[in-house]
Amino acid sequence: MTQEQDSLPSALTAPRRRLPHFSPAMAVAVVALVAAGGVWLYQQHAMETLRLQVSRELAHGQQQLRSTQERETQAQLRSQALERELALVSARQNETQSQQAALSSMYEALTRNETQRVLAETEQTLAFASQQLQLAGNVDAALVGLNAIDQKLAALNRPELIALRKSINHDIDQLKTQPYLDVVGIAARLDTLVAGIDTLPLAIDGNRDPKNKAAPAAPQNALQRFGGELWHEFRQLIQIRRIDKPDAMLLTPNEAFFLRENIKLRLLDARTALLMRNETAFRADLKATNDYLKQYFDTTAMATRNTIAALDVLSRETLSLKLPDLSASLTAVRQSRLATERAKP
Known about the structure:
Layout: H1 2-13, H2 24-136, H3 139-156, H4 162-176, H5 183-196, H6 222-237, H7 246-249, H8 253-275, H9 279-296, H10 302-315, H11 327-342
Helix pairs in contact: 2-3, 2-11, 3-4, 4-11, 5-8, 8-9, 9-10
Protein name: Uroporphyrinogen-III C-methyltransferase
Pfam family, one: HemX
InterPro entries: HemX
């Protein structure tokens, strides 16, 4: 206790150390120094943060740059592929255009050749139809030919042939309005008359028909039969007849044969005149045939009367029909042929 008490007063009685004296300037300096240190630390932190952000941005930019470069590379590859495909398409298009031009040229040449062939056939058909009209007056054959031509031209469907089709249709309409003449029927009737000339009885044979003679009585015995036959033969030796046409009775068998052949030739000439539309010659031949029949043949026979009646009916037929010609259509088809031949291949 005494020691502690001794020590305590000594501690209390010991002189105090004097603290250092701080001036305001020093405080301001310290504060400024602390503030500068804080600012420096903040700036360092900010710079570090900025550096990290810039590093991240730079890395992101480099990544985007690499992505952009990759996309650009892919775009260049696609562009090159597209250029190759475009070149291939252009080559195919040029090839297609060349083929199309060649096909068009071939089609034009083929069509032109087909047109020339059809026009040549048309000209031949028109010439034949014109001959049929002028020589034989065959309207039906001319109509068949013109209709066939119109069908061919319609199938060809060429605009430069419109004028030709109009001309042909005009001729068809004209032929359809013509009166009908049955040339085939008249020719068939003439052929029938020619075939029946050999069966017509001559005037010299008119009284030799057994139907006109009285049948002798049937004999009773052989002696009467012999006497009847003898009397019949005696009557055949001498005949008394009235002759109105002495020329007809003086015909020999050879003359009768040539008479029939001459009549046949007259009928055949009438048939030829019918086909040529020569009405004068046709009527003259029929009149000559009629005169021969009335002069040299038995007009009391039914066959002769029917033949004369048929000749009278035929002589009243009108052959001189005014038929149109086909000159306009022939001129049109020739002009179309010249135009087609002068066209550029």
